[in-house]
Amino acid sequence: MSEDCIFCAIVDGEIPGRIVYEDDGVLAFLDANPLAEGHTLVIPKEHYERLDDVPSDVASDLYAAIHEIVPAAEDAVGAPASTVAFNNGEAAGQEVPHVHCHIVPRTEGDGGGP
Ligand code: 5GP
Ligand code: ZN
């Protein structure tokens, strides 16, 4: 838990999140400002700022969850594909300093994505 971290506050239930997946170490919820319907964020419950701060066992759990959530997010909105991305560091557009994976369902020619 990091003070003043909005995603830690969602993990702790202090602010609401539209949760779509949860296991012991990972939480996924819908993005508040979606780039497309079904835009989902997947986070480790523990606070790490950058992808390269995440220990390999946590990274492995995170990837296992992503592996399940990607097809579920696509199916939920009838999308045939998705963009799956991390903004790693402020200069790359990371606004929330709690590592998170974006899953953005995509359709042909939608012009979207992170
Ligand atoms: P970043 O730019 O850090 O890669 O992405 C942060 C994402 O978090 C953005 O897509 C933004 O819409 C989303 N976001 C920011 N604050 C909240 C929040 O309080 N709740 C949820 N569900 N998403 C948020
Ligand atoms: Zn946090």
TrEMBL record:
GO molecular function, a single term: catalytic activity
Domain of life assignment: Archaea
Coiled-coil region list: none
Annotated TM spans: none
Any one GO biological process: nucleotide metabolic process
Active site: H100 (tele-amp-histidine intermediate)
Span of the annotated motif Histidine triad motif: 98-102
The HIT domain, residue ranges: 6-113
Protein name as annotated: HIT family protein
Gene source species: Halapricum salinum
Species lineage: Archaea, Methanobacteriati, Methanobacteriota, Stenosarchaea group, Halobacteria
Shown chain mapped onto the complete sequence: 1 to 114 of 141
